[in-house]
Predict the 3D structure of the following.
Amino acid sequence: MIDGHSVLVGGQKLMNENRIRWHCCEEHTGTVVHVAVDGDYAGHVEISDELKEDAAATVAGLLPRKVIILTGDTAQTGESVAKKLGVEEVYTDLLPADKVAKVEELLKQKQGGALAFVGDGINDAPVLSRADIGVAMGVLGSDAAIEAADVVLMDDKPSGLVTAIRTAKKTRRIVRENVVFSLGVKIGVLVLEIAMTVLGIESDMTLAAFADVGVLVLAVLNATRALHVPKAK
């Protein structure tokens, strides 16, 4: 209610539910928001988002992983964005509950791997918490989305997701290398010490120091490789 008038603002479903005859431009690339006052159609507003500069690079960097768009926008808007980004699968006109249902369906269909969902709005919070990995846009994202997410991109650049994946994979590889190297050296030194004892060869603390401190230093130096990860272009 505004100044004693009943005002409805929303999509086609809202207008149809209230039996209001609506109309809009035949060609539009954005989301159309209809307005009705006291049961009479007053007009509509078209809202169109701009693609981020690195959006296309992000999608390209995620391939050959499967990329899907879930949006509350109209089919025309969603398909237009998907075409620009090179995304083949897009689902439109989704309410928050519809997004959750779709993610549930995708979780059942997946074969190995993890399902990640990227969003920034308050309507994305339920989906972010349901996905295997929820990723929120930190600067422009809502508090609810940030709270529900597992990962927060602090610069609001989607390409940060590609960098995060590359960093995680490289970090995991380095950890495995350090574990195998450390255990290998320690076991090797232990076997060598036993052999030297059996052969009557005296040994000092040099080998033990290398197996402990030396391996630690080498592992730390190897871990610094995680600082250098190529970013999505």
